[in-house]
Amino acid sequence: MSAPARTRARWRGRLPWPRTLRARLTAGLVVLLAVSCAAVGVAAVVELNGFLTGRLDQQLQQAGTGFPQSLEHGTAEDAGAAGSARTPRNTKPSDHDGDEHGDTRRQAAATFGARLVAGRITNAAVVPCPSHPGFDVALTAADRAALAALPDDGEGHTVHLSELGGYRLAAWPGRDGDVLVTGLPMEPVRATVHRLELVAGCVFGLALAAAGVVGALWVRWSLRPLSRVAATAARVSELPLASGEVVLPPRAGEADPRSEVGRVAAAFDRMLHHVQDALTKRHASEERLRSFAADASHELRTPVASVRGHAELALLHPGPVPPEVARALERIAAESARMGEMVDEMLLLARLDAGRPLERRPVDLTRLVLDAVTDARAAGPGHRWTMELPEEPVTVTGDAHRLQQVLANLLANARLHTPEGTRVTVSLETVPPADGGNPADGGTPPDGRTPADGGTAVLLRVGDDGPGVPEDIQPGVFERFTRADRRRAGPSGGAGAGLGLSIVAAVAQAHGGSVALRSRPGATAFTVRLPSGGADAAGE
Asked: 133-169, pLDDT tens digit by residue?
């Protein structure tokens, strides 16, 4: 991952980014509206501030230099120390009505006036107002410097005076070589601008809140077909589609085909319709195949048994039989016996697929293991057969004959597909609920520890130290007619029909359990998990 991508991922983890499409659309709408409101507000504030400042400049032009020019007369004393301003003393606001101290007639309240000679302020005063009732004004060195720096072009300039605050000042050259400065306060302009900012902020805030609520409702209403599509897709994802009859949930519903969401909903409904048709045809095909397998198996049992019986009867004939004929009869009897076993297995699978109930009786698995290992030891004396059994008998509820067939198939698989000298170990284990695993974690773990009923489970494990099951066939090892290649074939060449492990899986599933495989060279284990009340759970 690149550095920018890592940075974006880190910020996504820190910031509360909207997760749903509805939230993102609403947030985008509100953000765009907020940007638009901010742009309008900034433009209005800037324009109003410029307009009011221009009006203030016009007032300065109208006021002219009358007030600062009148300050030249009637000063208490000549200029004292350098830089000191001459201001009228011992006066009252009512005294300045055109006398020698300063002409305040036709001057707006808080009008500022100053006279500069050779860059030094000789006089400075302000027309009394409620915020500054006095006539005098104290100027700091910074104020004097700012006033001295004003160009005498008659244009307005904004200057901050320490005692008076922000002022709009304009300077003109006087008749005596002096500079006359007139100013008006900026407070009314700033108060008006601030009031506009407050009103715009409140109005835009309410507009954004209303737009967020209305936008959320509008987006939710517009995306209703998409929400129905998502809900339908979620229900479809929870359905077992692997086999059997599948009934899909209702379609997403009608939507405007002219909109993008409507087209998505319509396409999704058409897809579900096609999937439903495909699943229906598949189920019908499976049912026909099961029916055919069951019927064919049932019908073939009698002819195969008849062929086998005639072959065995011919072999028992007391008269002389040519060796070639005897050999042919022996092969006919052997192949008919093998075909009879295959027909029985196919019929058993067909019955299990059809959901035929099994017997529900207590079964001593320990006794079944002992008998099955004894038979396997007799059939494969070249293998080393061992057992790992608990001290107490292990019992489950189920069909003893079918469970015996599971053991026989697993042991026959180990004997036929491993070379002589291979150690085959059969073990039984009772697993408490705490070790049963969690089926919601993604299916059956490789060790088979997933009791479907959440109770105690019994693990029947058949392992060997042979060459292992090839990796390419492990995913489908429990499918029907799956044959291992020669790497795991024993001396007999693995002549099975490929139905043994399918029967193991079908019987385990019929008992409410499962079967799993873990295999690598030198360590192969088939694990059958059976709940203690497996048949009860499966059959009820």
From this structure: 778 888 899 989 999 889 988 898 999 998 888 999 9
What token pair was written down for 533? 């009340």
Q: Count of residues for the chain?
A: 540
Residue with the two structure tokens 């983890």: 13
Q: How far apart are CA 398 and CA 406, in angstroms?
A: 12
Mean confidence (pLDDT) of the chain: 78
Q: How many CB atoms lie within 10 A of CB 254?
A: 12
C-alpha to C-alpha distance for 47 and 44, rounded to whole angstroms: 5
End-to-end CA distance of the chain: 53
For residue 507, is it left (φ>0), alpha (ψ between -120 and 50) or beta? alpha
What's the one-letter identity of residue 223?
Answer: L
b/e 411-445 (16+ beta carbons within 10 angstroms → b): bbbbbbbbeeebebbbbbbebeeeebbeeeeeebb
Q: CA-CA distance, 123 to 365, in Å (whole number)? A: 118
Question: Longest C-alpha distance within the chain, in Å?
Answer: 166
33 residue type, one letter: L
Residue-by-residue DSSP string for 163-231: TTEEEEEEEEE-TTS-EEEEEEESHHHHHHHHHHHHHHHHHHHHHHHHHHHHHHHHHHHHTHHHHHHHH
Residues forming a β-bridge with 538: none
Contacts of 138 (CB under 8 A, 6+ apart): 162, 163
| pLDDT value, residue 7 | 61
Task: Give dist(CA 107, CA 184) in Å, integer.
Answer: 10
Helices and strands in the chain, H and E counts: 12, 12
Any idea which residue has 């009358």 for tokens?
66
8 Å CB contact between 462 and 411: yes
Q: How far is CA 382 from CA 421, 431, 491, in A?
A: 6, 33, 11
The CA–CA distances, whole Å, from 481 to 20, 266, 317, 344, 498 equal 48, 42, 37, 14, 4
**How many angstroms separate the CA atoms of 21 and 219, rounded?**
9
Cα separations in angstroms, 178 against 68, 148, 173, 324: 11, 11, 6, 147
Residues of the chain with pLDDT under 50: 74-101, 434, 436-453, 486-495, 534-540
Q: What is the rounded distance in angstroms from the CA atom of residue 251 to the CA atom of residue 73?
A: 97
Dihedral, 312, 317, 318, 321 alpha carbons, nearest 10: -100
Q: How far apart are CA 301 and CA 339, in angstroms?
A: 9
Alpha-carbon gap, residue 142 to 160, rounded angstroms: 10
Q: DSSP letter for 129, please.
A: B
Query: What single letter denotes the amino acid at residue 456?
Result: T
SS3 content of the chain, % helix, strand, coil (to 5): 50, 15, 35
Q: State the pLDDT at residue 489.
A: 45
Whether 196 and 49 have beta carbons less than 8 Å apart is answered as: no
* CB 350 within 8 Å of CB 293: yes
